[in-house]
Amino acid sequence: MIDEKISDLRDDTKLKQIYNKKFNPVYKFGLVNVISRPTPDVSSLVKGEEGTGRKKILNIIKKYKPRVVCFVGKIAYEKFSHEKKFCFGWQNDIHHSRSYVMHFPLHGKASVRIHDLKLIVK
Fold first, then answer.
1. Cα(22)–Cα(107) distance, integer angstroms
2. What are the tens digits of pLDDT across the range 84-100?
3. Which of 88, 110, 108 shows the shortest CA–CA distance to 99?
4. Residue 92 is part of which domain span?
5. What are phi and psi of 12, to 5 degrees?
6. DSSP code at position 30
7. Residue 35 counted as domain residue
8. Burial of 76 (0-12, 13-18, 19+ CB in 10 A)
9. How far apart are CA 116 and CA 122, in angstroms?
10. DSSP state, 10?
11. Which burial class, exposed, middle or buried, applies to 42 when counting CB atoms under 10 A from its CB (0-12, 13-18, 19+)?
12. DSSP-assigned states of every residue in 39-89
């Protein structure tokens, strides 16, 4: 997915440089929060506060037409889609972009997320 040294990806200073200089222009990746404030856990989320983020994400998808939109974690996708019953993996397209829900990176084995990323790349 990205062509960088593993050691650079593990170095916070170099990783920040990669993010600032290459993430979008070279690799065509972008990150957008559904809720634009720190949320230590799910209990601090307020119903309806995702509305602004949802509109922003939909506008970005319409404008840039990414091949894939990836939601990191079930909560992010729930807040965006307002759906409660879905599984990790491919979801319905959003406009003409494929959408995918991957496992949150802090829970479980890394091999699960690596598997998710390999499916997205295909």
1. 28
2. 999 999 999 999 999 99
3. 88
4. 65-122
5. -55, -40
6. -
7. no
8. buried
9. 10
10. T
11. exposed
12. -SSGGG--TTTTHHHHHHHHHHHHHH--SEEEEESHHHHHHHH---S--SE
| 80 occurs within a structural domain | yes
Structure tokens at 49: 């506060």
Task: Give the length of the chain.
Answer: 122
- Please tell me the total count of domains within the chain: 1
pLDDT in tens, 4-13: 998 888 888 9
Residue 83 vs residues 74, 76, 78, 87, 92: alpha-carbon distances, Å: 10, 11, 5, 11, 11
Distance (Å, whole) CA 109 – CA 48: 32
Q: Which residue has the tokens 């170095």?
A: 11
Q: What is the pTM of this model?
A: 0.76
